[in-house]
TrEMBL record, chain A:
Subcellular location: Cell membrane
Main location, first listed in the record: membrane
Top-level taxonomy: Bacteria, Bacillati, Actinomycetota, Actinomycetes, Micrococcales
Protein name per its UniProtKB record: Na(+)/H(+) antiporter subunit C
Region (Disordered): 124-175
NCBIfam families: PRK07946.1
Membrane disposition: Multi-pass membrane protein
TM ranges: 6-23, 30-53, 73-94
Membrane is among the record's keywords: yes
Keyword flag Protein biosynthesis: no
Automatic annotation (TrEMBL), chain B:
Pfam families named in the record: Proton_antipo_M
Keywords: Cell membrane, Membrane, Transmembrane, Transmembrane helix
Protein name: Na+/H+ antiporter subunit D
Taxonomic source organism: Cellulomonas avistercoris
Keyword RNA-binding among UniProt keywords: no
Amino acid sequence: MSPNLVFVVTIGVLFTVGVYLVLERSLTRILLGIVLLSNGTNLLILVAGGAAGAPPLIGVASDRPMSDPLPQALILTAIVITLGLTAFLLAMAYRSWQLHRHDEVQDDVEDRRIVRLAARDERAFEDADTESDGETLDEEAASARDETDEGEAFDGAPSERPPPRTDHTTREEGR
Amino acid sequence: MTDWGWLVPLPVVLPLSAAGLALALYRRPRLQRIVSLATLTIVAVVSAALLVIADSGPVVVEVGDWAAPVGISLVADRLSALMLTVSSVVILCVLIYSLAQGREDGERFAPISIFHPTYLVLSAGVANAFLSGDLFNIYVGFEILLAASYVLITLSGTRERIRAGTIYVVVAILSSVLFLVAIAAIYAAVGTVNLAQLAIRLPEVDPGVRLVLQCMLLLAFGIKAAVFPLSSWLPDSYPTAPAPVTAVFAGLLTKVGVYAIIRTQSLLFPGGRLDDVLMWVALATMVVGILGAVAQDDVKRLLSFTLVSHIGYMMFGIALGSVHGWSAAIYYVAHHITVQTALFLVVGLVERFGGTTSLDRLGGLAKMTPVLAVLFFVPAMNLGGIPPFSGFLGKVGLLEAGVQLGTPTGYALVVGSVVTSLLTLYALIKAWNKAFWQSPPEELPANRVPMGMVAPTAALVVVSLALTVFAGPLYAYTGRAAQTLQERWPYIEAVLPDGMRGEGESQRAADDAEVGG
C-alpha cells in the first residue's frame, strides 16, 4: 500500500510550519504551531489506517474492502484532547497578556542568576562552614595544636585534635 | 479461582466519577473534602488488593467487553500493581497534607472548588497510564494526568506560576505530539495499538523500522521522565507550584514516564538494541543533574535537580536489560516516589515555618523545630543512599547488576552512580548544615506548622522506612515482576489467550455474524 501523495505533502507542510512557529517566543504563535502540529499528526494517523473504503459495518454488503475504523476513533480522541489544550493555552496566553501586556515566553530568572554567580565565581549562598575567616591554614594548625602530641606528630599515630573552629555553636548560644 | 477483574478499573473509574461529584459540590467544600478523601482511600485499598492478586498472574479486564486487539484492555500485572499501590499511597498522603493546608490558608492556598476535582482527575490519569494495556490508552492516560497537572501548576495564575507553567505546558504538549506521531507510525507498521499484540507483531517488522519506532517512543517518554538532555524543563517549572502540588508531581509524573519506558522496552522491544545509548544517557542524567543541584541556593530547586539526577539511576537499571537490573530499577522507582515526595512536603513545611526556602535566609531550624529537622534528615539521608535506608538497598542492587554485566560501560555507570550518590549527599548535607544547624542571618518568622500537615509527611517518611524494613519481600516481588517482564509471554497470554483475540463479547458477536452470514 502506498499512501496518498497529497496527504504526505500536506503532513510535511503542516509539520514544517508547525515546528517553525513553535520555535517563536510569542505564546500565540506557539499555540498556532501546536495546532498545526496536532493536525499534521491527525492526518498522519489517517494515512496510517490505509486507503478509504466501504463503511466498516458487518452485514452491509459492498464490493469494496472496508476502511479501517480504528484510526478514525483515535483521531477523534486526539482532536478532542487538542481542543481542550488549545483552550487552556489560549487562556494562559491571555493571562500572560493581562499580567505583562505581552505573551512572550520568559527566561527562567533563577537560572540566569545562578549563571551570573558562576561567572563571578561566587557561592550560591552564605555558608559559615565554607566561608574563609582570614586565618591561614598554618595559623589554624597552630591554634589547634594541643599539648599531648609533642614531637610525635610524624610517627604516624593520628593524634586527637579538637575541631579547629566551633563557630556556629558558640554563635547560636550568644544569640 | 474468584474473578477479581472488577477491581482493575476502579482506580481509574472511581476518581473520575468522584471528580465530577466534587465539581458538582463546589458550593459544599466540606462534602467535597469527604468525597476526595473517601475515594482516594478506597483507591489505595483497591490498589493494595491488586498488588496481592496480581502476584499470581496478570489480571485483565476488557473495557465494555470488547475483545482485546480492537477493544481496550486494562492489565494489572506485578509491575503496574506495585506502581499503582505506591502512587496511590503517596497521592492519599499528599491529599491529607493539602486538606490541612487548605484549612489553614483557605483560598490563598488554592481555590478549593478547583483543586479537588483536578487532583482526582490527576489520580485517575496516573492510574490509567499504569493499568492500560493499549498504547493509545496510555496516551489518553498521559493526557488526563497532564491536563490536570496544567491546571495544578498554574493554580491562582500568579506571575511566577504563569511563567513556569508556560514552559511546562508547551514542553508537555510537544512530547504528547511526539508520542502521537510514534503511535501513528507504529499503527502504520503493524496495524495495532494493543500492547500484547504489538509484542507479537513488532519482532516481525524490519529491524531498521523497529529501531525508528523505538527511538520515537523513547524520545516521547524521555521528555516526560526528564531524562538528560530532555530534562531542562523540570527544574524551571516544578519549584513555583504550591508545595503539595510540587510534591505529587515530583513523586509521580516523571515516574509514569519511567514506567512507560520500562513497559515498552521490556514488552515491545526486547533484545536491548539501544541499551548502550541508554546507559550513556543514564550516566549523563545522573552526573549533570546532580552538578546542577550542587549550584542551587533554593532548597526546592536543589531537590528538583536531584530528582532529575536520580531518574538516571532508574534509566541505569532499565538499560542493563537484565532481570537484576529491572528488579533494582523497579525497587528504586518505589523508593524514589516516596522519598522525593516526602522531601518536597517537608520543604513545604519549612517554607511555612521560616517563610522562605532560600538557603541564604534559612538557619537554625534544628533548634527551633526538631520535628521538622528529623523529618528532613531521614529522607535526605535515604536519598543520599546511607545504609540501612531503602536508597542504599536500591543502589546496591543497581551496582550489583552493573558489575554483573561486566562491560566497561557497566563499570563506568557503577562508578558514575557512586559519585552521584556522594554528590547527592554533599548537596543535601550542605543544605542541612545551613538551614538546620547554622544561625540564621535574620530572625525567621517561626510560623505555626499545623499538625494536619506534619502527620501525613511523617506518614510518608514512615512508609519510606517501611520500604527498608520490608525490603526482603518487596525485593522478591520486584524480582518476580522483572522475571515476568523478561519472559514476556505471561503478559501476552493473559491478554490474548489464543494469540489472536481476547475473550470479550464482541468476539462472540463476530463469530455469530460469521455463522449467521
